[in-house]
Design a protein that fits this description.
The chain has 152 residues and is of the alpha+beta class. 20% of the residues lie in helices and 26% in strands. It has a four-stranded antiparallel beta sheet with strand order 2-1-3-6, with no helix packed on it. Strands 5-4-7 form a three-stranded antiparallel beta sheet, with no helix packed on it.
């Protein structure tokens, strides 16, 4: 059985457990637990969502496929959410330049970088290329859907 299949089954099982178990005190979404990620994966819509301000504020842009130029959200993004369907081409490479140019960062399916103004996220792929090592906050111009995050 492939690793993706195992992960998909595990995420589905966790999501079912979250849905049928009672919530006491803080909800799963508030607690930031692994169950939160599983629940998000269970409700995937197949889009990469980005917002111009942290925590889903400001202008939203979203894509189901690749984009060579982020238009209204180009170099203005502070919240990134990969809400992809699992099963191939579910990770996203985020590039410093249009047309998938320059260095890039990669966000896995189900992950959300809710506040990139903290300087926690950087372009870590493509040593020697434009933007390598820089913060991704307000610095993304294009993206490509890929099978998994890897250095290339």
């Amino acid at each position: 059985m492939s690793i993706k299949r195992v992960l998909t089954l595990a995420a589905s099982a966790a999501a079912v457990a979250v849905l049928v178990s009672p919530v006491t005190g803080a909800s799963a979404a508030e607690s930031g637990s692994q169950d939160t990620r599983s629940a998000r994966l269970a409700s995937s819509d197949g889009y990469l969502h980005v917002y111009t301000q942290p925590y889903g504020s400001g202008t939203e842009c979203k894509w189901e496929g690749n984009s060579n130029n982020w238009g209204a959200c180009r170099n203005l993004t502070s919240d990134i959410w990969n809400n992809a369907y699992l099963g191939g081409n579910d990770a996203v490479d985020l590039y410093t330049a249009p047309d998938a140019g320059g260095a890039h960062a990669c966000i896995d399916a189900g992950d959300r970088w809710i506040d990139t103004t903290t300087n926690q996220y950087h372009f870590t792929y493509g040593a020697g290329l434009e933007g390598f090592g820089q913060s991704i906050n307000n610095n993304i111009s294009s993206h490509r859907w890929v099978n998994y995050c890897s250095q290339h």
